[in-house]
Amino acid sequence: MTTLTVPARFNGPPQSANGGWFAGHLAQECPTTPSQPAVTVRLSAPPPLEVPMTLERDGSSLRLTDQDTLVAVAAPAPPLPDPAVPPVSYADAVAAGAAYEGLDGHPFPTCYSCGTGRTDGLALRPGRVATGQGEYAAAWVPDDVTPEIVWAALDCPGGWSAGIAGRPMVLGTMTAQVEALPDVGEECVVMAWPRGGAGRRFDSASALYGREGRLLARAEAVWIAVDPAAVRPVGR
After folding, report:
1. Which residue ranges in the chain fall short of pLDDT 50?
2. Which of 107, 124, 204, 231 is the most buried (most CB within 10 A)?
3. Which CATH number applies to 90-230: 3.30.1330.10, 3.90.1150.10, 3.10.129.10, 3.20.20.70?
């Protein structure tokens, strides 16, 4: 039996995994091909921390369960389209971080990717680009690099661009295509932009760029709004 476990430090909400890191971890078990270079991960339940989950294979598709609970499924996917917005400079991404809405109230301050209460996470601060059309940018200098970390970097900026500041959301589905990993210490920019929504569903896209605007990875995501009464925002 094959199992998959999420270490506790890679959390999003306090008691469950960061959706992007988790999806990227599961994606490493999913075989891709030149015609299907991306992976789609659909979450059905909050991924638990420090719990061995059972991984089942059905051809190229994966099914992950925690005892009788379906946690997620994954499958290879066709190439994602080119990013809809160009990258800003690293300096402009740093400047955008001053407008990070999570500084004034974060639904999940311990989030590995963008939490304001973490000293050992990615410390992403996605903010609206002042001269843009609704896109967000985040500056990032990785001190550790894995495919899972790249998925985590693509994850949360999309949520903030989709409006998580006004309505707490969790990741429902994420599709990502990783072309290359950044170098440790490389000045990177994550771009993210909303793609509409209806009801409790909100869509976003994101892209990771390295030095000189080199496209490293891209993603599309579906976010599901949760009851604000169940989440108490925490400020600085």
Report:
1. 231-236
2. 204
3. 3.10.129.10
